[in-house]
Please model this.
Amino acid sequence: MAIIERPASNVALPFVDAPVTASSTFGVLKRPVAATGWKSWVFTVDHKKIGIMYGVTAMFFFVVGGIEALLIRLQLAAPNGKVLNADVYNQMFTMHATTMVFLFVMPMAAAFANYFIPLQIGARDVAFPRLNAFGLWALISGGIFVNLAWFLGGAADGGWFMYAPNSGPVFSPTHGVDFWALGLQIAGIASLTGAINLIVTVLNMRAPGMNMMRMPIFSWMALIVQFLLLFAVPVITVALFLLTFQRNFGATFFDVSAGADPLLWQHLFWIFGHPEVYILVLPSFGIVSEVLPVFSRKPLFGYPFVVFSGAAIGFVGWGVWAHHMFASGLGPVSVAVFSITTMLIAVPTGVKIVNWTLTLWGGKLWFTTAMKFSIALIVLFTVGGLSGVTHSVAPSDTQQTDTYYIVAHFHYVLFGGAVLGLFSGFYYWWPKVFGKMLSEKIGTWNFWLMAIGMNLTFGPMHILGLQGQPRRMYIWTEARSGEGFFNLGFWNLISSIGAFVIALGVLLFLINVVHTARKGEKAPLDPWDARSLEWLTTNPPKEHNFDVIPTVHHLDEFFHRKYKEDENGAMVKLKSAEDIMAEQERNADAHIHLPSPSYWPLVLAFGLPVTAYGVIFSVPLAIFGGIIILFGAFGWGLEPATAKPSDYDPPINTGDHSGEVVAVG
Amino acid sequence: MHNEADHNAHGSSSGISNIKLGMWLFLGSECLLFGGLISTYMLYRGRVSQGPTPSQVFDIPFTSVSSFVLLMSSLTMVLAVSSAAKKDDRGTTLWLVVTALLGATFVGGQVYEFTAFKSEGLGFGTSLFSSSFYTLTGFHGVHVTVGIIMLMAMVGIIQRSEFPGSKAETIEMIGLYWHFVDIVWIVIFTLIYLIPV
Amino acid sequence: MSNAGYVRIALILGFITALEVSTYYVDFGPLFLPALLIMMSIKFVMVVSYFMHLKFDNKLFSMMFYAGLILAIGVYSAALATFKFFLN
Model:
């Protein structure tokens, strides 16, 4: 109940809560009460701090995955590459994909969702703050665990889809795949808890008046993503368990000599894997749908269509998985069915692109860096979408399977879609999160290098693929590289140069971050003349988000508080953000109680990798890890989600509070 | 001084409980977990390259009894939830203990079953049937065991609790979990045991 | 729902279970498979509706749970169908 570890804000707070002493809860560990320093981050349950930590983690893994990509492109820049040997090359592309998908895009989307969902729906935190902290630490545990294999005999080397029977001990004798399977299992737990938490938050904790059709579009897309995670993660959980049992305990699931069907793995993987594609890209669609209206000075065109097409993508996304398996001999009926569903899913995606374009149409466009990234997303994602449609045509897909054409396609949708959207979000929301403006000058360079670099890198891959260069081959040879315009050597070199251009762009972003932190200008309250509720608080937001929980009357509530329609139907600005903020502070709630920090999420998350390590190397260690988890669960269950009133000095009013123990939360 | 809605960060716009909604979402998610395990078993149940077949090892009368025990534990669980709602801590404790005992009987039966199968030559890696059978029923057994631990922990917490019935919602959540584990077994009993390959 | 009501539900569930087990001893012919699946479904829905209160509770809970259930049945049946599981 009350703010324990958050530093007092420098403005005079409108409420005064008692100073806090360490609590004497049932638990063994006392409650953390540090107000500053690393403890205020590590034990926090504040969705904003957790969001930032998700972001930092994801950015770290983005750099790791990027370095892996550069090594791959170095190897392929010239014929008979000598940079990596075949074995290391296999590990490199496996870990590049694993890192980018599970440890960069997903956590970065989680960072945005964690930070902005409560702010956009007018809540003070998520529904289960401790579960939120647990999700972060489980993700970090899982990410480290997957990468540990680099130092313990070699990383996973079966591709991110880890097809059986290639993933078995015969073909992959190191522990890489074990670390991969168990590490992703841990990251999956993080995704699942995060999904439950955020769905409950959105469904249950919206501000008064905010019905679902008044909810900012990013929160909508993030909600759909959480549903996809909720139902997709258990499928990969099953697959990963089968793989672990096969490799570590002698089960036979993918053992062809025992009569197994290796396609079982492909089905389980892609039943998860295709919704996963939308898990990666929908958050960016949400970000873009926030950015475009703000910098076009127009409402989002066809908000309900964007919402329902997002939901339709989420729904149809469950019925297309086998288009990843057209070349596996599914049989004509299955191939026909999945061909048609795949063509269908292009429709709602197309609806979105039309809506974005019509949002721009007739708007007073303001070409900030965020806007540039968003416009680039519309263009480049469309390119990737169109090559995707060519995959829905099964005969064509059969030709393209396992060539660089596929690599070109999914990098256009993932880099051109997901990554550009996330960068758009960085530039748009940086002032909100950190209170300082990222440099637009560096940002422009950052944008052009990334946009040009990605086209140089992935554009030529269309040609390479159609010429027949296979994926996942660690070298190509001059003898078979063709001549003239279609010479593989030329396009491979261009692609590798492009990769370094992207890297330079990302480096500029990091330089921009450091530059901004050191001497960036302080952000005004409403730098972009924004529209949604997260701007109804200071930059960075107050610990309790809002002084008054807003009552919502409109979609784009913040805009409608600033602007009113005059008699000619034009929107006229009546109030500045500063006026609105001052109003908020005048009417601030007398008492605001925030969830208390806790050690237990960390204890529980620490038990997971210990158990996983034990599964690979020693059963007693696994049991020990299990005991840590059990201990963590008990401590968690016995600790009230909010500290008891008697833990405060002086004790606060207890009239309406029974000190209920909440087991989960 | 202030009402519950602005009392903490946990106000609810729909009027339903956060934790209950979270629990139902979790159970929805669990459907896909057990669905995957059951499908794996269904695909592989007839694939016995060596070792015994399902009909050679299954002891239907024995499993029928333990299925019945688990089914009845759902009744005792619902009685515990009902007592908790009436703030009857003694009744709650009684029914929680009975539920845990019935659950333990079921798990004990499963341990006995596994041991018997093992002695008949059905190891974990013997065949596709054995791997998928042990994985599916083992996962279910772990779920029941986790449920028993939660039930016993709840009994301990009730003894220390200051206000009668204050744990009613938590007990209801454990109940939802427990019933879910029971319905999974309802499906397993029919699809795995009663329908022959 | 009263405790007596719960006991009645349990008795019905026990009775259906007995019927299910009887299929092991008595030959039901072509009715065997559909009868078993129907009885299984009845038991499933009864526990969910009455013991888990889904019938009396907020519709949102039902939506969340049945969404997962129906999705699971859908995708896994489709996957099994590609293995020609239902053809023999």
In short: The CA atoms of residues 195 and 229 of chain A lie 6 Å apart.
